[in-house]
Design goal:
Length: about 375
């Protein structure tokens, strides 16, 4: 029986290795081991106090379905954020609340493209893009980036790829995962304008905005065109577990996305939406958390090269260090497995982000507490000795 009733072909996406490492670490923890978590981009700090307070208050009342686009006060508050932070006017009517940016990506790929559409992105890049696209019958087009362009995708590369075989979309994260590198504002403008000229939909993953250590990230909305902006409360706002994010949509996509969302999810959990409304008031605490990341970043940039990790990619933002392990191995997978089991340090192997070159790289997340990150490098030093 089980041979005949198999899982769908569309489900045959690759595993998200960072999540698999997290599971393997949880198995070891269940068996009593102590593990330092540097595998997932998950803040070690809790959500700001104002968020927790708003959640407590929300629990006193009734929690129900909300409008599929999200509760109006949250959409209005997000619109204000664009005014305050970037000086960009976006009406609340173009903002949609989603179940994390992950929910936003599902809706974006379904609502903006038809099956077979080709969507370009940088490799190395966030693995879920590729996996969601494949499951939905779209085609990820991975364009290798490297030191020549500071590990970011350029408008020239997009134009070249489009000339070879037409693209329907381009997806850029800045700061990026796993590299942490930022697409500078002028380069972002070039991308937005090139895509507009070529009739390609531009998708801007701005989930790491707020986590920039030098300079400032600009939103793709500042450059006209009709980009779709994807964002989330997960990272800067320390709310991974609340599963709440948002999209900024061109006017004509709002209703199609609303229709899809009504049937897929009904709505984002009201508790998380009410809590997220207070996230923008947690600025002081969040900036203090970010200062901790800044110290973790400095610590890793100093310590990892001395331990033998090479070719460290510029960490402009986010909370990742993507480093070569070529001095130790040609199999990052095996290296991270041994590192987890023998040193008790979890990190993510490069093939999660880059099929072609990832076997020589691993990614460390420094979103954990300072104590945890220092413990991690001490364990690595002892293990590598
Ligand atoms: C670049 C990028 N986009 C999107 C996500 C998904 O985040 P969430 O669904 O929690 O908003 C992540 C998570 O690591 C990420 O690194």
């Amino acid at each position: 029986m089980s041979g005949r009733l198999a899982a769908s072909r569309r489900s045959r996406v690759e595993p998200f290795l960072a999540m698999d490492v997290m599971s393997a670490a949880a198995d070891l923890e269940a068996a009593g081991r102590d593990i330092v978590h540097m595998e997932v981009g998950q803040p070690g700090a809790p959500a700001p106090r104002a968020v927790l307070e708003a959640a407590r208050k929300a629990l006193e009342g009734r929690l129900g379905y909300t409008e599929a686009l999200g509760i109006r006060p949250l959409r209005e508050r997000i619109a204000r954020h664009y005014r305050d932070e970037y000086g960009v006017e976006v009406p609340a009517s173009r903002i949609m609340v989603t179940t994390g940016s992950s929910g936003g990506f599902n809706l974006t790929f379904l609502g903006a493209f038809d099956a077979g559409a080709r969507i370009a992105m940088a490799a190395p890049g966030y693995p879920a893009y590729r996996n969601i696209l494949k499951a939905l019958g779209l085609v990820p087009v991975e364009i290798p980036v490297g030191p020549r362009t500071r590990w970011v995708l350029t408008a020239d590369e997009v134009e070249r790829a489009h000339a070879e075989a037409p693209l329907a979309g381009v997806l850029v994260a800045s700061p990026a995962n796993p590299t942490g590198t930022m697409t500078l504002p002028e380069a972002l403008r070039d991308l937005v304008e090139t895509c507009a000229r070529l009739g390609i939909r531009f998708i801007s993953d701005e989930i790491y905005h707020g986590l920039v250590y030098e300079g400032r990230a600009e939103t793709a909305l500042a450059f006209g065109g009709e980009p779709i902006v994807v964002n989330s409360f997960s990272k800067y706002y320390c709310m991974t577990g609340w599963r709440v994010g948002w999209l900024v949509l061109p006017e004509d996509l709002v209703r199609p996305f609303e229709r899809l969302s009504q049937s897929f999810y009904i709505s984002v959990p009201e508790l998380s939406q009410r809590a997220a409304l207070a996230a923008f008031d947690g600025r002081e605490e969040l900036e203090a958390v970010k200062e901790g990341y800044r110290r973790n970043r400095a610590h890793l940039l100093e310590r990892l090269p001395s331990l033998g990790f090479d070719e460290i990619v510029p960490v402009d933002g986010a909370f990742y260090v993507y480093a070569s392990v070529a001095r130790f191995t040609n199999d990052a997978h095996d290296f991270t497995r041994r590192m987890l089991h023998e040193a008790g340090v979890a990190a993510t192997p490069g093939p999660d982000f880059d099929h072609a070159r990832g076997h020589r790289y691993i990614r460390f997340s420094f979103a954990g507490t300072e104590a945890a990150i220092r413990e991690g490098t001490d364990r690595l030093a002892a293990w590598l000795r």
